[in-house]
Description:
Elements: E1 5-8, E2 17-20, H1 30-43, E3 45-48, H2 55-65, E4 90-94, E5 108-110, E6 113-116, E7 119-122, E8 134-141, E9 149-153, H3 154-160, H4 163-169, E10 173-176, E11 192-193, H5 200-207, E12 213-216, E13 218-220, E14 226-228, E15 235-238, H6 244-260, E16 266-269, E17 276-280, E18 284-288, E19 291-292, E20 297-304, E21 312-313, H7 319-326
Parallel strand pairs: 2-3
Antiparallel strand pairs: 1-2, 3-17, 4-20, 5-6, 5-11, 6-19, 7-18, 8-17, 8-20, 9-16, 9-18, 10-12, 10-15, 12-21, 13-14
GO molecular function, one term: dioxygenase activity
Protein name: TauD/TfdA dioxygenase family protein
Cofactor: Fe(2+)
Amino acid sequence: MAEIQVRNLAPDLSFGAAVDGLGWDNIEDEAVRQRLRDLFVERGMIVFKNMEPTAKMQVALSKVFGPLKDHPTKSTPRDSETGDEAQGVIDMHYKPDPENPEAGEGLVEYKGEVLARYSPWHFDHCYNDELNYAGVLRAPINAPVGGRTGFMDGIELYRQFPEELREKLEDKNVIYTLDTRLSKMKYGVNFKHLTEHSGNVALLKEVALFPRAMHPAIWQRETGEKVLHFGPWMAVGLEHHEDAAGDALLDEVAHEINRLGEGTSAYWHDWSPTDMVIWDNHRMLHAVEGCSARYERQTLRTTIKGDYGLGYFEDGKKIGEVYREVA
Length: 327
């Protein structure tokens, strides 16, 4: 049986690990699986190098860390290759218009460039009362320039955050909605919105049914570390402070997150088709820097069940009730 090789992602990062040597000959070995699970709890994210670039391997890797979870929204495209075994493997695929790439869907202008697949800092399923434990991502098609995915560690973010701002967030809950339109983003906006996604019509029908969700801006892990976990994208207010002061605070925090996202709170991953990345969704934020609207880009994500138990819907509903209404 081949051994896996483990190293830190970079000498200046307090989080993250890189793993090589995982494949079909050792992925079912329980000693290897437990080592990976322990590493994940400690480091918060793992970049797997030189993986077999298939949906089957992505599903097998995901199941090392827990059972899969379907995506909450029906309007989100699924990957057709994985079939019923991997319900909820979502397909995020941007195809440029060869005649007029700058008239494509979901485009923004950022630092003077028209970008596709730009995603601000966020955590997955923030609009749910339950957060998924983790996600596993791969990029079969990536742009030759740009298109990196950023990962920001909430533990390191808490340590580096200005103390005055951090204290204002203690014991505060942030309100999130399912509305993913960048044109509606309120906090930390550092781009110019250009075009919407055509799928937004179907999305907005689901937005009307989903209640707003509350999640703490700061929470504490069982291991003792505090985590700053505010995703500016899809945030709409501060619970009990939906006023100008609450909005000003969240905007200031969001811009500070943007600033720290360019420093040692974040890791920016340059994709290879044989990479797979898993991150702790309870601890990490992630973002996509975007790429030129001229380039095709595709990422596929599996979602792993698990919840930290601190989120809730404001109207007291449970997620099962919401799913029945959406279906």
